[in-house]
Amino acid sequence: MTGTIEARKEQVRDVVCEILEIEPDEVTEDSLFREDHGADSMAVVEVVAWLEKAFNVKIDNAELVRMVNLAGVYAVVTEAAGWESAS
């Protein structure tokens, strides 16, 4: 189970890093996309689109306000996919 959780987190991190054009070692669970990495709102929308396709989920636009860092993105994807929420 833990391997699956870690694999999902890594996949989410990979998508975020690809779109924001940052190295995986530059982003932490709590680093803020906009403030720490210079992302704009369009980048977050692109992240959502990729995640929806990658995980076959639908993410409500109201959830964008929570998707400010990796922890928030993973929480939203976990809820949208119906995965058991575990750290």
Whole-number count of domains: 1
Supply the CATH superfamily name: ACP-like
Global outline: globular
Text of the CATH class: Mainly Alpha
Spans with pLDDT under 50 lasting ≥5 residues?
none
Spell the H/E element sequence. HHHH
> Please, what is the average pLDDT?
91
Question: How would you concisely characterize the structure shown here?
Answer:
The chain has 87 residues and is mainly alpha-helical. The protein has a single domain (2-81), classed as Non-ribosomal Peptide Synthetase Peptidyl Carrier Protein, Chain A. The protein has four helices and no strands.
Tell me about this structure.
The chain has 87 residues and is an all-alpha fold. It has a single domain, classed as ACP-like (Non-ribosomal Peptide Synthetase Peptidyl Carrier Protein, Chain A), CATH 1.10.1200. The chain contains four helices and no strands. It has helices at residues 2-20, 33-37, 41-55, 70-81. α1 (2-20) packs antiparallel against α3. The longest helix is centred in the N-terminal third of the chain and has 19 residues, at 2-20. It is globular, with a radius of gyration of 12 Å. The model has no long low-confidence stretch (mean pLDDT 91).
Which keywords apply here?
Non-ribosomal Peptide Synthetase Peptidyl Carrier Protein, Chain A; 87 residues; 4 helices; mainly alpha
Task: Write the SSE topology.
Layout: H1 2-20, H2 33-37, H3 41-55, H4 70-81
